[in-house]
Amino acid sequence: MSRFAGKVALVTGAGRGIGAATAEQLARGGAELALNDVDEARLNETAEQLRGHGVKVTTHVGSVMDPAFIEAFVGAANAAHGKVDLLANNAGGGPPMTPWAEFAKSDFAHFRAIFEMNFFTQAMLFHALLPGMVTRGYGKVVCVSSISAVLGQESGSAYASGKLALHALVSSVSKEVARFGVNVNAVVLGNPPHPSRTPERQAFLDKMSHFDRVGRLEEFGKAIAFLLSDDASYISGAAVPIDGGLIAPRLNE
After folding, report:
1. Is-above-0.90 flag for pTM?
2. Could you report the per-residue pLDDT of 193-210, keeping only the tens digit for each?
3. Lowest mean pLDDT: which of 150-154, 186-190, 249-253?
4. What span, in angstroms and rounded, lies between the C-alpha atoms of 236 and 123?
5. Are the beta carbons of 40 and 61 closer than 8 angstroms?
6. How far apart are CA 155 and CA 62, in angstroms?
7. Is the confidence at residue 10, as pLDDT, over 80?
8. What are phi and psi of 90, to 5 degrees?
9. Measured between alpha carbons, how far is 36 from 20 in angstroms, rounded to an integer?
């Protein structure tokens, strides 16, 4: 399969999890990759594995919360690969040492930091890459959101708010750039595997899933890769659930 031959993809949070799984699918399809993560060792290990598919892979270590790093990252990716066609805007979560809490009990500085990590990181990178896509008349962008944006999350209002803001950004920008050959979508992830999740929390999510199980990383990676492919050429402005049915609740045991 070579559906990404000649394309260059930038993937954030690519050292593990959803980012690595997405990069795997892109590499299998022949895309060159510019990969980012904050963990250098983890990122280098992933990159070495992906080079086994015979594609060019560059690594860019740093935090996409830092505007100066984003500018340097985009410049380095363009210098190394000549362009960026595809963006898997995956990085998010919680800043280190920043506790989640119920809104009324939260330190607002913590609320702001979590919100910014889940919205402004993706918005800044998107903003930096979009002009090049518009000029070249081609681009595919996928912003990674969460079912928390749709359902809300107790003690996670900052995270949910940041992710929901992505939906409005995607919906708005997609209208502005479709005529220039740029597709912009979001994916709404539910129940992907996560190393910090307790067995009790995992069992609860699995029970909510229509499949009675956690999602497999390759399932998320393949779905995101589809939206980054020309097979999805008439999809834009969408928030596509990849959630095992969690947004559609089970009404019977």
Report:
1. yes
2. 988 899 999 999 999 999
3. 249-253
4. 17
5. yes
6. 28
7. yes
8. -100, -25
9. 10
Tell me if residue 138 is catalytic.
no
Catalytic member of 159, 205, 221, 227 = 159
3-state secondary structure string across the chain: CCCCCCCEEEECCCCCHHHHHHHHHHHHCCCEEEEEECCHHHHHHHHHHHHCCCCCEEEEECCCCCHHHHHHHHHHHHHHHCCCCEEEECCCCCCCCCCCCCHHHCCHHHHHHHHHHHCHHHHHHHHHHHHHHHHHCCEEEEEEEECHHHHCCCCCHHHHHHHHHHHHHHHHHHHHHHHHCEEEEEEEECCCCCCCCCHHHHHHHHHHCCCCCCCCHHHHHHHHHHHCCHHHCCCCCCEEEECCCCCCCCCCC
Residue-level pLDDT at 24 = 98
Which of 210, 224, 196, 202 shows the shortest CA–CA distance to 87? 224
> Which tens digit of pLDDT belongs to each residue from 12-25?
999 999 999 999 99
Contact 177, 129 (CB under 8 A): no
For the sheet containing 239-242, what is the strand order?
Answer: 57-61, 32-37, 8-11, 86-89, 139-146, 182-189, 239-242
Phi, psi (deg, nearest 5) at residue 129: -90, -25
Instruction: Specify whether the backbone of 13 is left (phi greater than 0), alpha (psi in -120 to 50) or beta.
Output: left
pLDDT of residue 253: 73
